Amino acid sequence: MFKSLEGKEVTIHFIDGSSVTSGTIEEVDDQGVRYRDEFQILYIPISSIKSVAVNTKERQRPRVGFSQ
User: Fold this and answer.
1) Mind listing the pLDDT tens digit for each residue in 6-48?
2) What does pTM read for this prediction?
3) In whole angstroms, what is the distance from residue 27 CA to residue 35 CA?
C-alpha cells in the first residue's frame, strides 16, 4: 500500500494523535517508512501509523464577476 506513495508529499497521522506534514516518503519496507521533510529524516514503524493523506495543491476558485 505504501509503495505507491513513494516520492509523494504526504501527511502522516499517528496513533497517539500527532502528525508530520510537508514531507515525502522516500523508502518503504516491511517494517517501516522512511520519511524526509525539510529538517529531518524519520524512520516510522508501520504499526504506529494511523493514516496517510496525500498533499495536493489547493484548487483555485474561478473568479466571479465581470471585467472590463
Assistant:
1) 989 999 999 999 999 889 999 999 899 999 998 999 999 999 9
2) 0.76
3) 7
DSSP notation for 8-60: SEEEEEETTS-EEEEEEEEEE-SSEEEEE-SS-EEEEEGGGEEEEEE--PPPP
Per-residue pLDDT reduced to its tens digit, 43-60: 999 999 999 999 887 767
> What's the rounded Cα separation, in Å, for the pair 66 and 54?
36
Locate cell 465581470: which residue?
66
Q: Which cell numbers hold the place of 54?
A: 496525500
Fold of 2-54: SH3 type barrels. (2.30.30)
Which three cell numbers mark 61? 476558485
